[in-house]
Amino acid sequence: RVVRVARSLRMLRLMRYTHLVRKLRLMTVAIVNCSMMLMWAVLALLLVTFLFAVVFLNATSQYVSDATSRNEYVDDMRTYFGSLFMTMVTLFMAVSGGVDWWVVMRLFLEVDVIYGLIFMLYVVITVLAVLNVINAIFVNDAMESTRTDHDLRMQGEWEDTRVMLERLTAIFEKMETEGSGEISDTSFIQQVEREELKMQFALLGLYYSDGINFFRLLDIDSNKSIGIDQFVMGCLRLKGGALLIDTNVLLEDTRALVATTGRANKKAIDIIGHQLKTVCDKFTQLESEKQEKTNQLETVIQGRKTRRGGL
User: Fold this and answer.
1) Which of 171, 222, 253, 309 has the most crowded CB, counting CB atoms within 10 A?
2) Is the pTM of this model over 0.85?
3) Lowest-pLDDT range of 111-115, 192-196, 212-216
4) Distances in Å between the alpha carbon of 33 and those of 16, 17, 119, 137, 181?
């Protein structure tokens, strides 16, 4: 027994590494986050089962009390519907596979056809409505829990990126036939215009209308050729932006136009500022000359007044 306990503890220690198994972690997170929903689902199922169990218990109790001792169905009814608890258990087993529902249906038909129809209604409501709704809610909550779990999202993104890297590498190797490790602009444009490659890029989430704009976005250093690094990283950048390639080209053109316009405006502002400074300096010089002449004129007038006063 001690050895078994030690083995059990050893297995529990291995649970620390469950985060390495993504699927197991996904199931664990989904089960833990759906625990509250499980409680409400059980309560809803118990409520529906309880309501029908009350109806069936009254019917079978009346039938057993009125039946003779030689009735072959009395023992089965006492077994399956002897109490409210057993009635609920029987109904639950009928919809969960614990007992063949025809066995229960046969007993209800013996009581009355109406109760057989009510039992069919219970099966329809429970199986087609309640259980399916509960399953849908569980699936939705499980998906929401995986979206909110940071580690699972990181693992999912890493897996998607790895798959995309492998596919992009395979596409580049198929396009690069010269063995130089680079693809020229002419060869690239000719190959990406083929419908086969367009479909492959579309499966990766990359859409373009012409190869010229596609190449312009990938050729960052503008040397008319791209290597595998430029190709893969450029495609990942476009994929991450979640935009059409034509839109990216338009954005690049807009950025270039804005930059050119900004430089031209700055140059014009500098020229205007320089001219304004020249005009201001000229006005300052004229003002100084005017003030100087005014001072000279006042000096001459003052000298004449002084000479007249001396005479």
Assistant:
1) 171
2) no
3) 212-216
4) 19, 20, 34, 12, 49
Map residue 221 onto helix, strand or coil. coil
User: Please, which residues have CB within 8 angstroms of residue 56's CB and are 6 or more apart in sequence?
Assistant: 81, 87, 91, 108, 115, 118, 119
DSSP 8-class letter at 193: T
- 297 phi and psi, to 5 degrees? -65, -40
- Which CATH fold would you assign to the domain 176-240? Recoverin; domain 1 (1.10.238)
**Which range scores top for mean pLDDT: 48-52, 192-196, 289-293?**
48-52
Q: What is the mean pLDDT of residues 233-238?
A: 76
- By CB neighbour count within 10 A (0-12 exposed, 13-18 middle, 19+ buried), where does 94 fall? buried
Residue with tokens 């059990």: 8
204: DSSP letter? T
Q: Is-contact 214 194, C-beta < 8 A?
A: no
- DSSP-based three-state secondary structure for 220: coil
Compute the residue count for the chain: 311
Nearest Cα neighbor of 217 from 192, 196, 195 is: 192
CA distances from 122 to 61, 109, 119 (A): 19, 14, 5
